[in-house]
Amino acid sequence: xxxxxxxxxxxxxxxxxxxxxxxxxxxxxxxxxxxxxxxxxxxxxxxxxxxxxxxxxxxxxxxxxxxxxxxxxxxxxxxxxxxxxxxxxxxxxxxxxxxxxxxxxxxxxxxxxxxxxxxxxxxxxxxxxxxxxxxxxxxxxxxxxxxxxxxxxxxxx
Length: 157
Hints:
The structure is a single chain. The model has no long low-confidence stretch (mean pLDDT 87). The termini are far apart. It is built from two helices and six strands. The chain has a three-stranded antiparallel β-sheet with strand order 1-2-5, with no helix packed on it. The protein has a three-stranded antiparallel β-sheet with strand order 4-3-6, with no helix packed on it. It is of the alpha+beta class. It has a domain of 108 residues: Sandwich (Immunoglobulin-like), CATH 2.60.40. Strand 3 and strand 4 form a beta hairpin.
């Protein structure tokens, strides 16, 4: 009985081999790109000389802070206010650094957020726009004071 059995060789079509190689190479390329993105994250934009000159045309007003509790029983600090554009240029993006400090004046959290941008729309000359910032990750060592708000980037439309 064993002598009559003929071993059949299973052949894999070349198209399957090519497909498998393409998938493996694609996964390798993705892994390298993902590693590079994590190793060298993009640096946030800085104030250009032109933007530094324009900062004097921006006003932050009616800035207030209040604490609330989220639906997940987590403390949320909200900073609200208005940004005004007294200049003659339309703004596409305005980012600010919110700097939270402890009782000794040491920085415990610095978070960069957009107050004018793709979600809120542009800010035209002679206009004022409301902003609302929510923070749920402020360390317990925070001094409970209003954070320092510093304009970090301006992009003109």
